[in-house]
Amino acid sequence: MATLLTAFACVLLLAVLLSSLAHRTILSTAALFLVAGFVLGDGVLGVVSVKATDPLVGTLAELALFAVLFSDGMRVGWQDLRAAWRLPGRALGWGLPLTLVITAVGAHYLAGLGWIESLLVGAILAPTDPVFAAALVGNEKVPPRLRQLLNVESGVNDGLALPFVILFLAIAQGSADLHLGELGLELGVGVVIGVAVPWLAIKLEQTRWFAASTQYEPLNALAIGLLVLALGKATHGNLFLAAFSAGITVATFGPRQRESFEHFGELIAELFKLAALLLFGALVTPALLGSVGWTGWLFALGALVLARPVAIWLSFLGSGLSVREQAAVAWFGPKGFASVVYGLLVLGSGIAASLQVFQLVAVTIVLSILLHSSTDIVVARGFDDEREVPAWFGRLRRRGGES
Questions:
Q1: Of 124, 41, 97, which is closest to residue 345 (Cα–Cα)?
Q2: How many other C-beta atoms lie within 10 A of the C-beta of residue 175?
Q3: pLDDT digits 0-9 by tens, 242-272
Q4: pLDDT for 102-160, tens place per residue?
Q5: CA 231 to chain centre
Q6: Which residues does 382 contact at the CB level (< 8 Å), separation at least 6?
Q7: What is the DSSP letter of 51?
Q8: Alpha helices (H) in 173-216, listed in sequence order
Q9: What does the record list as coiled-coil region(s) (predicted)?
Q10: Which fold has domain 60-277+288-402?
Q11: Using CA atoms, how far apart are residues 129 and 337, in angstroms rounded to an integer?
């Protein structure tokens, strides 16, 4: 534990010292933690020794995904969804399920998985992560509707993919038929807790008897999140749907709480994400990368350059987006943190194909992080109108205006 904590602290310090450089170049903080975990893991240096069955891995993955879904939900209240639903609705309503199905077809025919396990892989890899497209989303030269589309889609699709992951995993475990009612109850209880707890807490603060001070205001949403987590554990409700529902409820009924918690919450979620990426990298050994064979790598490449682009192209027919905008949306479907945690959950589930599923997910995520985090700035610059005009033409145009 001490060794792992030391390794995380050292890599975190390095990431902080390089963060300014990372914002200006293709260097990615997420990629840094992934590579550090890989190098420090059993497959290379053996400094960080972890197994998928270690309680620490499961606990950290659970807490990290809870924090991320809570933060994601808080970014997309109902008002935001209603105001900007036309384009994200296409990506989520059509793009997500189409990506899932096309990815599942590839897993079945290239990797030889059964259809249920293939659908499970598709559900795990369907969500996108905005972290690896930060330069695109944060560039003001990129059309606002495109940035809004990527922001809303990546904030919502983790939660939308989750029920599919749970369902296909239950079927693969052979328990869906016997416990379908129990599974539905678990999901329903999670949603009820996620809506009721923050709503009551916010309404309580709005009464004349209570008021949060400026100093403690950021802790309001944190307390709500912890209470949702505790009640979810106590009632066996689904923690992840509870977290996502709670985030949306806070964003909808407590805009002040949302605003005060935003920066603080993102830092907490980021810490959990980076720690989980370090452990994930330690589990991805050279032996694992080599064991998937050429068909596994071909599947990973197809999941990135075929499944998402085809799904987005079909989803946005007649949408009014330019070819360049559609190409940017199609390419920036990076497989990120949610897929990492879903893969870890499957690895610890005990299903017969758990290792093969994890291997396919792992190589796809590794390839995605390396490709997407190193191309976001390049694609973002393509939207800079000044860069599309040659320097000599700009000088000639200015001289013409002076004469």
A1: 124
A2: 13
A3: 988 899 899 888 888 888 888 888 888 888 8
A4: 999 999 999 999 999 999 999 999 988 755 555 566 666 677 777 778 777 776 787 78
A5: 24
A6: 324, 328, 388
A7: -
A8: 176-205
A9: none
A10: Na+/H+ antiporter like fold (1.20.1530)
A11: 7
Task: Report which DSSP code applies to 93.
Answer: I
Euclidean distance between CA atoms 345 and 317, whole angstroms: 36
The candidate with the shortest Cα–Cα distance to 338, out of 183, 190, 162, 170, is 162
Tokens coding 301: 């490449």
Tell me the CA distances in angstroms from 211 to 204, 207, 208, 247, 263, one per residue in order: 9, 8, 8, 21, 21
Q: Is 129 helix (H, G, I), strand (E, B) or coil?
A: coil
Do 338 and 150 meet the contact criterion of CB atoms below 8 Å apart? Answer: no
Domain boundaries of the chain, sorted by first residue: 8-49, 60-277+288-402
Q: What residue type is assigned to position 131 of the chain?
A: V
First to last CA, the chain: 72
Residue 384 CB coordination number (10 Å): 13
Structure tokens at 233: 């554990």
* Look-up of token digits 């505790």: 230
Phi/psi at 127 (5° precision): -65, 155
Cβ–Cβ contacts within 10 Å for residue 170, how many?
A: 22
